[in-house]
Amino acid sequence: MAASQAYARIRAEVLRLVALIPAGKFTTYGSIALHMNVAPRHVASVLARLTEEEARALPWHRVVAAEGRISQGMEPSLQERQRSLLQQEGMRLDDRGYIQDTDAHFHVVGLRRNIRWSED
DNA sequence: GGAGAGGCTTACT
DNA sequence: AAGTAAGCCTCTC
C-alpha cells in the first residue's frame, strides 16, 4: 500500500510531538527522530509535506536542524518566516540562522523509545 | 519496479 | 563556521 500504515503512524506522532513544543522553545529533527526511533529524514519529510491546515495549526517553526540552526535546504522565504517567528517568541538568532541561546530554549522531546512502527 | 528527491545527519577538511 | 561526501529510509513519479 502506498503511504504505509507505519508511515501514517509516524507522521501522526511527529505532528503530535511538534504540537507539544511550548512557545519560546525549540527542538531538532534529530531529537524527534531519535525519540521515535526513525531516520531524521522521515521527520523532515513529514514536515515538508504538511497540508495547509496542518501548517497553520502546528508550530513547525519550532523544529530546526542539528546544532540549533534553521534548515538551509528549504525555501529562503520559509527560512525567513521561521526566523521571524522564533524571534517573535523570544529567541535570538544570528545572521547564519543559528539560535543563540540554545541551552536555555532547547525542548527535550523525550528519551529514546524503541518503537516498532511496522505492523508485524 | 526503478530512478530521483527530500525543510537531515555525521564525519572530515 | 562553511563546504564536501556519503549514509540514511521512505515517498513520489
| Residue fraction in strands | under 5%
Q: How many structural domains?
A: 1
Q: CATH superfamily membership, which one?
A: Winged helix-like DNA-binding domain superfamily/Winged helix DNA-binding domain
Helix content: 40-55%
Number of discrete helical segments: 6
Strand order of the largest sheet: 1-2
Topology-level CATH name: Arc Repressor Mutant, subunit A
- CATH class reads Mainly Alpha
CATH architecture label: Orthogonal Bundle
Which secondary-structure class do the elements indicate? mainly alpha
Give a short synopsis of this structure.
The protein is built from 6 helices and 2 strands, in the order H-E-H-H-H-E-H-H. It is mainly alpha-helical and 120 residues long.
Describe the structure.
Helix 1 crosses helix 3 (40-48) and helix 2 (29-36) crosses helix 3. The chain has one domain (5-105): Arc Repressor Mutant, subunit A, CATH 1.10.10.10. A two-stranded parallel sheet has the order 1-2. The protein is mainly alpha-helical. It starts with a helix and ends in a 15-residue tail after the last helix. The longest helix has 16 residues, at 5-20. The protein is globular and about 45 Å long. The protein has helices at 5-20, 29-36, 40-48, 52-57, 76-88, 102-105, and strands at 27-28, 63-64. The mean pLDDT is 90. The chain binds a DNA duplex (13 and 13 nucleotides) through helix 2, helix 3, strand 2 and helix 5.
